[in-house]
Amino acid sequence: MQQILVYADSLSWGIIPTTRKRLDFDQRWPGVMENVLCASGQKVRVIEDCLNGRRTVWDDPFKPGRNGLVGIGQRIEIHSPLSLVILMLGTNDFQSMHDHNAWHSSQGILALVSAIRNAPIEPGMPVPPVLVVAPPPMQTPKGPIAPKFHGGEVKSVGLAEAYRTVCIESTCHFFDAGSVISSSTIDGIHLDPDQHMTLGKKMADVVSTLLKSSPL
After folding, report:
1. Tens-of-pLDDT digits for all 216 residues of the chain?
2. What InterPro entries does the database record attribute to this sequence (predicted)?
3. How far apart are CA 130 and CA 170, in angstroms?
4. Domain total of the chain
5. Containing domain of residue 121, as a range?
6. CATH of residue 34
């Protein structure tokens, strides 16, 4: 059984745009990915660690525990041995209370990759490879979350390319979700159900190849 940790935010948690409700496991992309991989004959377990509002390395001034760097080493330790860690973060770095750009967020991703590689796992357990997934570009924020993400679609321009660059530098795997899906037509930020389905199927293809080269 190969274990995959998805370390992410509300786009992967499966929040239904303009609500506080959540898509079922089979409807959100990590679940779709697991189902497709298992149906193909690969024995895979997807562990979801997806927190609404999680940043790469910054605190939320209104809610505790949203700094993705805090405790990630222990997450790796808890769930090891892991065959793969998927990072899909960055959207919340551009909330209106932050003055960040794509480069800042890419540096946050680098810090997370370093923390994963230096996690206090048990001796002899493999250091898991990391797949960085750039979230799709934001559209103009709409609805109740519009004030929270005001200006984010401008601040986040170039995010995928910034992530690609740091992944090359740090020899991480990279995938641009924006190459296959778009952010929600309802709120401009999250993923609509059909986009979860599309991303999950594509991620199954990407991950299947990576798992075949994994020692576990």
Report:
1. 999 999 999 999 999 999 999 999 999 999 999 999 999 999 999 999 999 999 999 999 999 999 999 999 999 999 999 999 999 999 999 999 999 999 999 999 999 999 999 999 999 999 999 999 999 999 999 999 999 999 999 999 999 999 999 999 999 999 999 999 999 999 999 999 999 999 999 999 999 999 987 766
2. SGNH_hydro, SGNH_hydro_sf
3. 10
4. 1
5. 2-212
6. 3.40.50.1110
Global confidence as pTM? 0.98
* Token pair recorded at residue 126: 């493999």
Residues 99 and 46: their CA atoms lie apart, in Å, by 34
